[in-house]
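I am writing to request your help with a piece of structural work I have in hand. What I wish to show you is a protein chain and, alongside it, a tokenised description of its three-dimensional fold. Could you please explain, in whatever detail you think fit, how the structure tokens follow from the sequence? You will find the record immediately after this paragraph.
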Amino acid sequence: MYDQASELRKLVLQSMRENTAMFGPPPRLIAFTAGIAGAGASTLAVNVSIALAEPGSRVVVVDADPHHADIAKLCGLNVPSTSGDVTGARRDIHEVMLRGPGGIQIVPSLWGSACGGDPSDFGQERLFRQFKSLGRHADIVVLDIGTGDTEFLRRSCRLADDVVLVTTAEPESIMDSYACIKMVVADYEPICCRLVVNQCSDQRLAEDVFARVEQSCRRFLNQQLDFLGHVPCDDQVRVASKRARPFLLDQHDQPAALAVQRVAMLLSGREGKAQRSLPAAA
């Protein structure tokens, strides 16, 4: 079957080779998504990004969710009205970048208020070229790509170096997480996908959620899944959200913050490879 993304991938790779000398090595691209809205993907994207930046890495967070542009709000930032001009080729991505909390930089509301759906193939190619051109400013680019069946989400997952899929332990979220993976890898080669079980204080339940999704992925999709662990329910997360401040900045020793730091360590390779199978029973 003809893979439309393959042509986009070729163009992006070609532009990367052509621009490496000018922009430096391309940054690592990590896409955060979820099978269902409300799983907490945006909150985790921001806090994991801050944790990734703590050792000195340069991290840029791009709000690429066309339906819920929450990144700037979560960080307490005012968004310029021109932030959506990037997709319309009226501004360069560097022109709309804002300084965020915890040492990260933010590209807010990539789509702007007038987003009418996926940009053209050319527009998407231009966006990914700009993401890769951020090598002068970033070691890691984190994309918050939202949820839903969109071509941009599928292409983002296929072009990303890592895809972090956020789910909860709720049955609907689990089923939609599997459906999300199926949508992305259908008729294409598998992706590097890592699962986080959010808002779950029971480790064994989180491991069971991962086992169910991972087994289905291996059996029906020939897709391997990594386990990044779980982030427990924590009242401080809700408090920080109301204050428009990432919880990791004030709660380093709280359960959710410790879990987020572990996710960042696994993503960065500072704690070895993510688990590809369940931990041994105690």
